[in-house]
Amino acid sequence: MLVTLANIFFQHGHRVRVITLVEKGPLAEQLLPGIEQLNMQRGFKYNPVVMHRLLKQLQGFNVVHVHSFYNLRYLWLAKMLFGFNRPVFYHEHFGFRAQQQPTFWHKYILPKTIFISTAANISDWATAKVGVPANKVFTLQNIIVRQNVPLVEKKQTGTIQIVLVSNFRREKNIEFGIQLLQRLNATASLYHLTIIGKPYQQDYYNMLQQVIAETGTSSSITFIHDADNVQKLLPKFDIGLHTSPSESGPLAVIEYMAQSLPFLAYNTGEVITSIKTELSDCIALSFDTDEWVQKIQRLHAADKGALQQKLQLAFNNHFSAEAYYRQCLDIYTSGLPAK
Q1: For the chain, what is the total number of helices (H) and then of strands (E)?
Q2: Calpha distance 119→214 (Å, rounded)
Q3: Which residues, including other chains, have CB under 8 Å from residue 123's CB and lie 6 or more apart?
Q4: What is the pTM of this model?
Q5: What one-character DSSP code corresponds to residue 259?
Q6: Which of 23, 28, 87, 119 could disulfide-link 270, Cβ–Cβ 3.0 to 4.6 Å?
Q7: CA distance 12 to 5
Q8: What is the average pLDDT score of the chain?
Q9: Range from 26-40, 94-108, 113-127, 142-156 carrying the lowest mean pLDDT
Q10: How far apart are CA 100 and CA 85, in angstroms?
């Protein structure tokens, strides 16, 4: 979302600087030419020289927008040491945040920020449990900018290609997708599952390998760990999956819609709340494999053209870049001191 926000505001004529603390990361390549990029190359975590230099790099900007709490905590320590009186907008993306007890640092720092969440339940958490004033809490639903991806002519192999886009974290419930694949292929190996994501939790990734061995699904599963542009890969698939039981987005579902890919996702997150009336056939209400199998079979048998039109319409109605820009601009205006 950092890249999306930076690109959208730059396209609307704003000066944008993206600062990273340790390394840029591969997504930096997706920032538009003209966006200022600065990597602080922080070594020792509490180096006061780097902290002071960070604050100097924020001078001249009206909006300081921070992603990830560890970045906010670092900025706050720098602010306490050297002083910084600019309003700070903090953007919370973590879907499970609303289910956690706030820490001391949450309660100390967050009430002093303008708090932006990607889901209503996270906004409720901020006001009820953390003590952020209600007039400083905003909900900004995630979007994805649709990319123009060439159509891919699918090979008629008789295999139904399923994709699950998710980084490897325990809360993503990827093992359910593997178990679902086993169930789908119980009578004949008609389905192949490709899992696209980075193995951030190696122990969880190892556990999934064990689940694959136990379910005998290894020949029907492919992993892709190095994809930094998922949308360009989606046209080769027939159905997308999203299996996480708790989400603030989920972004993967928006990516599926952006490329008109039929999908089945669990009923969680602001994205699903927005589209469940229009795309009820794409939403699973439980983790009963019978429900998922039946809905996947119906999606595969549906009129492809009509279904793709519904997906495109839902995407345009809820996730346009222009609407997102206006909503975020309103949040900035509300959070900044009156002139």
Answers
A1: 12, 12
A2: 36
A3: 115, 117, 137, 138, 139
A4: 0.72
A5: T
A6: 119
A7: 11
A8: 92
A9: 142-156
A10: 30
